[in-house]
Automatic annotation (TrEMBL):
Enzyme Commission number(s) of this protein: 6.1.1.6
Gene3D superfamilies with a match to the protein in the record: 1.10.10.350, 1.10.10.770, HUPs (3.40.50.620), Lysine tRNA ligase, stem contact fold domain (6.10.20.10)
Motif placement: 'HIGH' region: 68-76
Family: Belongs to the class-I aminoacyl-tRNA synthetase family.
Major subcellular site: cytoplasm
Keywords: Aminoacyl-tRNA synthetase, ATP-binding, Cytoplasm, Ligase, Nucleotide-binding, Protein biosynthesis
Annotated region (Disordered), positions in chain: 1-25
GO molecular function: ATP binding; lysine-tRNA ligase activity; tRNA binding
First-tier enzyme category under EC: ligase
Biological process (GO), any one: lysyl-tRNA aminoacylation
Compartment annotation: Cytoplasm
Native source organism of the sequence: Natrialba swarupiae
Protein name from the UniProt record: Lysine--tRNA ligase
GO cellular component: cytoplasm
């Protein structure tokens, strides 16, 4: 449809088309991967301008996309954030950029998800909603299926609303585009017609990638929607591009393969316009590039090893366009396991932001996308500590390595909201210390302890104090979600009922004296001292720890006592061990 295919080498392949390549030895060194990608996008744009195939006023388009199946979870944000960083770098360089995100909502529903999500971010089982709305519509486009929650125009719209909310939560200004809307408005019409006019060439190209497509067969790259049952069918019996305004296809509604099951067709025979169906994915993706003018698109390794090779081939050798700059990102796992709606191993962006600040989450996605990582809820404190170090290096409070300094200086302003002010006076409470403070219900007491322990400077501005203490609730939510060692309520206001023998009472007083007189309190040293104090006083070690838990939590068990007490203000620990308050 254009002459841009001349950019590629033999068979349309070009050296810069390797989606796994972020930065080669010939590229200018960058501390941040998004700068390297932006260089390539700029080179693409400059080449198009030089060849006169691009309007100088045309914005750069960064694209992502998702098919509305399952729960829109944190893993889906990978594509949004990778695109965002490249878009933001390009905007820094003075370019106008659109970040488009397509909801591939004309795709058919091929199986019932076990878990769904309401608009408030609550996960629900299929049995808790109108599952029949989905079960009766297997094989139909997502936007033709009633919303099982009854709150949106369709199941596809419901899913898209959650994706939009996820992007808003991390302050990424995406332009959400519905594939269904594009088809119904006729945006796909010209490219669909072109593919059908050149279906022999389309078959020849696709036959190299799909065994079911014979280069000399009768495969037609269009999937009509059956007028009788509403399902998508893959059986086109004839094409008449002179019929109506843009042409029609005749079809028969046949069975659809859906993984390990078959979705029955109804057998209806009819005709559909080019707006009453869809292109198969391996043609639809390149068609999106053309319609939306896409310059860059990140995608997961499943596409890199599957539909990307055919996509760039179709783009160059069927549509005659140059594919966008690609970038494959590695998936990440959740607590060591793949994200899975059916297995319940998912977490939503809204859930994550109850546990940590948005800038910490954005930092996670700023790291090298070519490396597989684990997002561990259990070890979330490590991610927060890593972010705090990254931030401290940026402000010169820690030295860091040369690479760490370069990365922090380049990336830190980008992990903040776009118009946020970089403020050195910010305060970050250590995450596990914040979790300890979360054991207190009284906000004033939390601040008092944080000040006593030196985590809040005396002259700190009020906004910085408020922001620092906001981490306490997030850390408390983390403790409760994971049931970890900080998931206890410290009985601060009064001493719980207790009754200790003379030996235990003496041991507690001895431990209080150690805490009161120690020059510094090392967590592990204090843990060891608890053991030794029990032994010196002939108190069973288990019973002595239980006495501590009784005094501080009114429980028989609790967190590792030494590290916990080391984080609580010393005066209170001493008084409680002496049973004074």
């Amino acid at each position: 449809m254009s002459d841009e295919s001349s950019v590629g080498g033999a068979n349309g392949a070009s050296d810069d088309a390797n989606p796994y390549t972020l930065q080669s030895a010939d590229d200018e060194h960058h501390a941040f991967w998004a700068d390297a990608v932006a260089d390539r996008v700029e080179a693409r744009v400059e080449d198009q301008l030089e060849r006169g195939v691009r309007d100088p006023e045309e914005p750069i388009v960064v694209k992502g996309g998702i098919s509305p199946s399952g729960v829109p979870h944190l893993g889906n944000v990978n594509e949004i954030m990778r695109g965002y960083y490249v878009a933001r770098v390009l905007r820094e360089r003075g370019h106008e950029v659109r970040q488009v995100f397509t909801a591939d909502d004309r795709d058919p529903l091929r199986k019932l998800p076990r878990t769904l999500c309401d608009l408030e971010g609550n996960l629900v089982d299929l049995g808790d909603v109108d599952a029949g709305a989905l079960g009766r519509n297997l094989g139909a486009p997502y936007t033709d299926i009633p919303d099982p929650f009854g709150c949106c125009d369709s199941y596809g719209d419901h899913f898209s609303n959650i994706i939009q909310d996820s992007a808003d939560a991390v302050d990424v200004p995406i332009e959400l585009v519905s594939n269904t809307d594009l088809y119904e408005r006729g945006e796909f019409e010209d490219v669909t017609r072109y593919v059908l006019e050149n279906r022999s060439r389309a078959r020849e190209v696709l036959s190299s990638y799909q065994d079911k497509v014979d280069a000399d067969g009768d495969y037609v790259p269009f999937n009509p929607i059956c007028a009788e049952c509403g399902k998508i069918t893959e059986t086109v019996t004839s094409v008449d591009l002179d019929a109506g305004e843009a042409g029609t296809v005749d079809y028969r509604c046949t069975d659809m393969d859906a993984g390990d099951r078959t979705i029955d067709g109804c057998g209806h025979e009819g005709a559909a316009t080019l707006r009453e169906g869809k292109l198969p994915w391996r043609f639809e993706w390149p068609a999106q590039w053309q319609i939306l003018g896409v310059d860059f698109e990140p995608f997961g390794k499943d596409h890199a090893e599957g539909s990307w090779p055919s996509g760039q081939d179709v783009a160059r050798n069927v549509l005659g366009i140059e594919p966008p700059v690609p970038m494959v990102y590695e998936w990440f796992t959740l607590d060591g396991e793949p994200f899975s709606s059916s297995e319940g191993n998912v977490i939503l962006v809204s859930d994550v932001l109850e546990l940590l600040e948005p800038e910490v989450l954005r930092y996670f996605f700023a790291k090298d996308p070519s490396r597989a990582r684990d997002f561990s809820i259990e070890r979330l404190d490590q991610l927060v500590d890593e972010f705090d170090r990254f931030e401290a290096i940026y402000f010169g409070e820690l030295e860091g390595t040369e690479d760490e300094r370069e990365f922090a200086e380049r990336v830190y302003p980008l992990v903040l909201e776009e118009d946020a002010e970089v403020r050195e006076e910010r305060i970050r409470l250590p995450y596990t210390f914040a979790a300890v403070l979360g054991m207190f219900d009284d906000p004033a007491l939390r601040e008092e302890v944080a000040r006593k322990e030196g985590h809040i400077p005396e002259n700190a501005p009020e906004w910085a104090v408020d922001a620092a203490l906001a981490r306490v609730e997030r850390a408390r939510n983390w403790a409760r979600r994971t049931g970890n060692e900080f998931d206890y309520e410290l009985k601060r206001s009064e001493i719980p009922d207790h009754e200790f023998d003379a030996a235990t009472t003496a041991a507690l007083s001895e431990l209080a004296e150690f805490v009161a007189t120690a020059e510094t309190i090392d967590p592990e040293e204090l843990q060891g001292e608890i053991y030794e104090t029990a032994k010196r006083n002939d108190v069973d070690v288990g019973d002595f720890f239980a006495a501590g838990y009784r005094l501080f939590f009114d429980e028989e068990q609790g967190p590792k006592l030494g590290p916990f007490l080391a984080k609580v203000d010393r005066e209170f620990v001493v008084d409680r061990l002496r049973r004074d308050r």
